[in-house]
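Marked as duplicate of an earlier ticket. Keeping the data here for the record.
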Amino acid sequence: MEYRTRKYVRTWRGALGVLLAGGVLLTGCSGASDGKEYSSADRRGAPAPAPAASGGAADSDGAKGADGSKKQDGLRESAPPDYLSTFALDVDTASYGYARRTLADGNLPEPATVRPEEFVNSFRQGYRRPAGNGFTVNVDGARAGADGWSLVRVGLATRAAPARDERPPTALTFVVDISGSMAEPGRLDLVKKSLGILTDELRDDDSISLVTFSDEAKTLLPMTRLRDHRGRIRDRVDSMEPTDSTNVEAGIRRGYDEAVDGRVKGANNRVVLLSDALANTGETDAEAILERIDSARREYGITLFGVGVGSDYGDALMEQLTNKGDGHTTYIADETQARKVFVDQLPAHLELTARDAKAQVAFDPETVEKFKLIGYEDRKIADEDFRNDRVDGGEVGPGHTVTALYAVHLRDGASGHVATATVRWLDPRTRAPHEQTGAVGTKAIDGPLWGGDSKRLQVAAVAAYFAETLRGGRLPGAPGLGELTSRSEKLASETEDDSVRKLATAIGQADRLKGGGDDNGSGGAPEGEMD
């Protein structure tokens, strides 16, 4: 790893009346006991300022500014640049699903396909949720081994998903890959089952259209209300057969044309791409493909949901398409996972509660010596672009949670404020900006990780450690795969969570494929952010 250190700090005047008066009022949502709402001018790149009236956010370890700074003689010192961490929110889970499929087939996943944040975000965390749109911000942690290392968990949660009859109507354009590679069992046959499951789950006032693509794209069904047309829809789905090559560009372009032409006012309009993403014809670069449909994305707000299938899967292309196409992606390997995506998690995949959502975490240099964000390499944003709403963030729906784990090394004898996390997002309809924040101090991360009260924090840690090991890395204090298997089996029993049991199975498979014998790891580094 390379480490960075900068020794200067930025300052600004504590009295910001003129700037604040001209700023945008940013209203958050309540729900986290340590969350605060802020009024802020658009001082891009700086951490969220404290309200002028209160003088700053405070935790149980002492009062600080919202960025972890101290106020002296009318000046406020902010965290140095290397003590800021900024990234777009990510609710993707495809990397974990594909890794499980690969391990079950007796192979280790390619390191480039392993994204730790997607492993972590595949598991429930039990965060408090807001009553309305927006987020709660939950920050906690635990000691993660010797030598002063801790894990800090930043947990963001949206409101609970609505009941089936309470969500807005939906208009979905399915773009289905019927190329030759989709003939393999577990590809087109699984897509057909998935669409059958979804057809049963959607309401009469929902609408769908169906586009297929191989070397060229074809519309099998224009936008059609489900009422009285379910049989017709099933006939179209059953008629799909694999043929020819894979022109993803043609499919997406035709899909967005259909989505715009059949757009339903007041509904959640979304394009759903179901594919192994092994593009070999036409444009194969994600940026170029998205440029072709840019106006449809931006003018009409039509987002892209990617569903990956197949043992040989174009992970990189699908991830790039959805990350930059204002959407997210998941992966399904069997009918059980298809039901989870298209029944249990359906509202989260169809509705948006936040657009261009970003997080910025300001660490306190007086208590924190160094830190590392685990994962999110493809989602990092320049610190100065945190409040630049022209820079893309992540799209998040109801029922979603987002977790960011940091490996944090505290200074010897550190006590007090550790970090403040701020999430910023745009209202999906009005695009008005909002922010919410939460803080954590040393007392809240002083307990031991293993055997501690928070089983869900332990599950998140196991998932992150597992992912980092699969991609050839090592986090400070991380156990070897053998110990991770044992810990995840115990957690599966304690939480009675079948998804954690499947995690234990996957870790055990990886341990056997690697031959066992992973050692623990830790390391020293200069101060600041660890790259």
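See parent ticket for discussion. The two ends are 6 Å apart (CA to CA).
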